[in-house]
Known about the structure:
The structure is a homodimer. By secondary structure, the first copy, chain A, is mainly alpha-helical. Chain A contains 14 helices and two strands, in the order H-H-H-H-E-E-H-H-H-H-H-H-H-H-H-H. Chain A has a two-stranded antiparallel sheet with strand order 1-2. The radius of gyration of chain A is 18 Å and the shape is globular.
Amino acid sequence: MNEKIIEDIEYTVKSCLPALSAETQGVNEMLIYSLESGGKRVRPLLCLMFCRAAGGKAENALYFAAAVEYIHAYSLIHDDLPCMDNDDFRRGRLSSHKKFGEANALLAGDALLTHAFHILALAQESAEVTASQCLSAVKELSALAGASGMVGGQYIDLMYENKEASPEVLFTMDSLKTGALIEAACVLGCIAASAGSEKINAARDFARNLGLAFQITDDILEYNDENNSDILNGKSTYVSVFGIEKASSLAADFTKKAVDSLSAFQNADELRDFALGLLKRKK
Amino acid sequence: MNEKIIEDIEYTVKSCLPALSAETQGVNEMLIYSLESGGKRVRPLLCLMFCRAAGGKAENALYFAAAVEYIHAYSLIHDDLPCMDNDDFRRGRLSSHKKFGEANALLAGDALLTHAFHILALAQESAEVTASQCLSAVKELSALAGASGMVGGQYIDLMYENKEASPEVLFTMDSLKTGALIEAACVLGCIAASAGSEKINAARDFARNLGLAFQITDDILEYNDENNSDILNGKSTYVSVFGIEKASSLAADFTKKAVDSLSAFQNADELRDFALGLLKRKK
C-alpha cells in the first residue's frame, strides 16, 4: 500500500516546485537536486498515514506532507554547509554547496524553507482543506521548524560541539533537532483529517517518542559504521553517553511508547508497522 | 503621525519573538540583535500605510508588517555571510556572523525566516483578520520572498557577480531583490484592509516602481560614498550602467509612476509624501 503513497509523494513534491521565470530557473535545478537526494520520505509518509489513521483521505494531506519534506530538504542543505557540519557528500552524492557553490546552496535552502509555506497556502486550492486548516498547518510547521523547534535543536547542537552533553541535554537537543519536524509531519496529517485535540495530542506523543527512537537508532547505526566522522570527532551520541546496550534498550522503549500512543486512533496498523520498521532499519 | 506607528512597529516586532525555553534563549538574543539594527522600517511602514489608504485600521496590519520585517532582517544576515557579500559591519555594528559566529548567524536567519510565517498565523488571534486573510498573506509573502521573488533576485545577483549586467538584467534583478519584498509589504497592508483586486494591483504597481526608485537611489548614494566596496569591485550598478545623470532621472521617473498608481486609493497623501521622501533621502 505504501508504494502508491510513495508515488503520490514523489509526484507532489515535484509538482509543487515554484513557478520561475527563465532568469531564475537555475534555482529550481538546485531544489530538484536536493529534493531528489534519495531520502526515505519518512516525514511525508507519517503525515499521510496520520491523516488516514484519523479518518481522513490521504490525498488531502499531500501538500502538507510535501511542505514538511521541503523543510527537511532545506535543513540538510544548510546542515551540510562548511560553517555547520562541512559535509562534502550526502547519500553518496555531492552535497549542494559542493555541487553549486556555497552561496547558491545557502539560497537554495532559503528558497526551500520559504516555499514550504507557499505549498501550505496552495493546499487550500488543491485539496479538501479550509483556509483555517491550512493556517493551523502554517502555525504548527513554523513553530516546530523554527527557533522553538528544529532550529533551536541545531543551536543546542552547536553549543555542545566541543563539550560533552549530559543525557538531559542530549534528549532536549534531539527532541528539537529530529523530533520537532517529525511532530510537525504527524500533526499536519491530523489537521488535514480535521482531527480533534485528543488525536493531535496522541500524534505529538507518538512523534516525540518516535523521534528519539529514530535518533538513537541513527547513533547505533553510525556507531556500527566505522567510517563515521562524528565518532572520530568525539561528539556526544547516545552510544557514547549510554553505551551500546543501554542505547538499544532506550530505542526499544521509546518505540514502544510511540506505538502505545496510537491507541487513540481506530486504524493505526500501518503506523505501528512503520514505527517498528524504523527501529529495525539497517541504514 | 508616523512617530506613533513607528512606536507600534517597534513594539510589535519585539513582542512577536518566539517563545523559547531556557536552553534556546540565546537564539532570541541573536534575533533581537538583528531586528534592532537601526533600520528605517520602510517595509512595515508601507504595510501600515497601505492598510490605512485602503480604508483599514493600521493596527490590523501590525502583525503582517512585523512578519515582513522579520523576512527583511533574515535577508540581511544571510546577505552579510562570508559566502555572500562578506560584510563585517552593518549600519556601524558588527554583522551577525562577526558577533555570533557564522553557524549561529545562519541559524538566526533561518529562525527569522521561519518565524515570519508564524507571526502571520498569530495575526488571526491578535487582530481583526480572518484565517483566509492570514493565509492570503502567507501565500503572497512566501511567493515574493522566495525563489520567485527576493531569493530569485539574489540568485541573479550571484550570477552577475563577476560580469557586467545589461540594463534589462539589472531591472529584473532589482525588481526581485528589492522590489518583491516591498511589494509584499504593500499587498499585505491591502489584505489586512480586505481590499479588492483593483487596489491590490495598484499597490503592486506602486511597489514595483518604488522598489526600483529605491534601489537606484541607493546606488546613487553609494556612488557618492567614496568608501563603498561595490564600486571598487566593479559591480554593475545603475550609476555604472547609465551614468549619474540618467540614473537620477530614472529614480525620479519611477517615483512619479509609483505616486501615480496611488490614485486608486482615496487617502494616499502620507504614502505619496513617504515615496517622495525616500527619493530625497541622504543615506
